[in-house]
Amino acid sequence: MSAPDGRRGGHDPSDAPPPAGSSPAAPAAAPRPRPWTALVEALGEGTFETMRAGLAKAGTDPFDRDAFLLDGAVGRVLRDLVPADAPADAVTEYGALLHALFLHWDGGSPVRRLERDAAVALLAAPPDLLPAPAAPPAVYVQLPERLVWAAAAPGAAHEPMDGLFVLRSSARLRVLAVLGFRPDRQGFTMLATDSPLPPPADARPDGSPPFATVLPAGERMGFFSVVTGAELSRLALLALAAARS
After folding, report:
1. Global confidence as pTM
2. Per-domain residue ranges of the chain
3. What is the pLDDT of residues 152-191, one digit of tens each?
């Protein structure tokens, strides 16, 4: 059954066939799936509203992650979120994820997208001075698919970066990168960093340029890599400044 369109009969020019010799418009590309959709839906809107009410009652600054995680309502959600068979240190990762999801939800769930050409230009020759982006304090920046790669820990497999939760206060920058997300996989890998603003410079130990690929054949494939926390912070600010809504 089709949805009503508000018309009461008569001819609508949009129903007419295209003129002879013309090509029909290409269909719009389907939006990419978003990593948090299933989890946020599973938690439910009421869960986020309960956390917000508890934080407000306690006078807690939601950006303060330690204080956020100590809140009783947040703690109950986190206990339900962490799988029973997860290692003990998984609570830190899940805490960072819940914090990012809450700030993102509380700010209206804004998403910005970085186009491939703009991303390649930025990462191939990143500017020395980092921008101060005019953007919401909590935003998800979606990167071009399979362009930027990173490993969650030394020795771990490198995975493509879907995007970044970028969380900013007046003095600090928190970044939570989503790695290895795809629709046929349950969950994703996380890579987080926390730094002052502006983030400190941090040269690579081997002296290679920032964002240079470390993958075999990565240069031929046009890939870029993030190998330090400072690079992740730098990527977040560059991508946020160049991305579009």
Report:
1. 0.85
2. 37-106, 111-242
3. 999 999 999 999 999 999 899 999 999 999 988 888 999 9
